[in-house]
Structures are given as structure tokens and as C-alpha cells.
Design brief:
single chain; alpha/beta; Rossmann fold; 6-stranded mixed beta sheet; 3-stranded antiparallel beta sheet; 9 strands; 28% helix; binds zinc ion
């Protein structure tokens, strides 16, 4: 499966949508990724996890860490392919943390896995948690890397798809000027 095949598959399954979207950052975009639409198929999650793991250096990774919820399936499959432990962070009262008695050993090398990395905010939050828990950030990996060139990240990203996605401020959006209604996608009914 090359990049074009993966783009086609994601489009076909509704994981890659074109239109006019309000992103969680408040900015508008003509492209939206909902990776859950592809990861809902266990065989595909397994396959994509394997492919992403193959782009990471297993010898430098002791544990895989993902932020709940969207990245859990992929992080789990990457950890399975690497033969490593999988833990996750979750948000409570606005703050992300390791819960459920998850802990890192001192110096344990962590790979951060996300479904989509856009602004790197959650990547940085997870990196801070890894460091605070005594671990070391060994790298980051995502199904889709849509970061802009000016985004500062705590580690280099391995990805299956690197996409340059243009976004605009809500008050200066060409799609708004065309009168296209904006859609707020995603996380219906969940935090
Ligand atoms: Zn707009």
C-alpha cells in the first residue's frame, strides 16, 4: 500500500473528507481526518499499526504511549507490532495524565503514537507526562502527519501519510467568503 493507495482507502472509508470544516483549534480547513473511520476495522488497524511500527526503530523503544481516545486503537496495534507494552494518558478535569496505575520506569524510552498530529499540542502534553514520570521521549508516530513546517515538536514524527493541509483563521477563510456552510465534525457526544 503506497501513499496514494492509503489516501484512496481513507477517502473511500470516510477517514479523509473534503469540504469546509471547523477544526478543534477554531481554524477552518478544506480537509478533515477522522481516523476512527478506518481504525474501526480491526484488520486495517492491525495492518496500519504494523506498517507504522516498521517505520520506527524498535531497539530504541521500551513502551508505547498514546493519548486517549482517538489514538488508542492505533497505539495498541503499533505496540503489538513492536512487541512492547502499551499505556495511555487521559484527560480529567482538563488535565492529561497517566492514570489506572500506569507508570514508567526511570529512563524507559517511550514512543508517542497518535492518529493525527496537527499542532503537536497533545504530543507535547504526552511528552511532558513521559518526562515527569521518569521516562524518555524516543520519538513520535502518527497515521497522519499534517503538521505545518513551523510547528515545534518534542520529537521527530514517523507517519504513514504526510499531508500539507491549509487552514485559515475563522474570520479570514476563503470558503466562508464563498458562502459554503462550515461543518463541525467529529466527537459527537464525547468529551
Ligand atoms: Zn470557513
Amino acid at each position: 500500500m503506497n501513499d496514494a493507495d492509503l489516501m484512496s482507502l481513507m477517502t473511500e472509508l470516510g477517514a479523509l473528507r473534503r469540504g469546509h470544516f471547523l477544526l478543534s483549534s477554531g481554524r477552518h480547513s478544506d480537509t478533515y481526518f477522522q481516523c476512527a473511520q478506518v481504525l474501526q476495522y480491526p484488520d486495517l488497524a492491525l495492518e496500519l499499526g504494523k506498517r507504522l511500527a516498521a517505520r520506527c526503530d524498535a531497539t530504541r523503544i521500551d513502551v508505547v504511549v498514546s493519548p486517549a481516545l482517538g489514538a488508542l486503537l492505533l497505539g495498541h496495534e503499533v505496540a503489538r507490532a513492536l512487541g512492547r507494552r502499551f499505556v495511555f494518558t487521559e484527560r480529567k478535569d482538563g488535565a492529561m495524565s497517566l492514570r489506572r496505575d500506569f507508570a514508567l520506569e526511570k529512563g524507559e524510552k517511550a514512543l508517542i503514537v497518535e492518529d493525527v498530529i496537527t499542532r503537536g499540542t497533545s504530543t507535547q502534553e504526552v511528552a511532558d507526562i513521559v518526562t515527569a514520570a521518569g521516562g524518555v521521549v524516543a520519538g513520535a508516530a502518527a497515521l497522519v502527519d499534517r503538521t505545518a513546517a513551523d510547528v515545534a515538536l518534542p520529537a521527530p514524527i514517523a507517519s504513514l501519510l504526510k499531508v500539507d493541509v491549509v487552514t485559515w483563521p475563522a474570520d479570514d477563510c476563503p470558503l466562508c467568503r464563498q458562502g459554503l456552510p462550515v461543518v463541525k465534525p467529529g466527537s459527537r457526544g464525547t468529551a
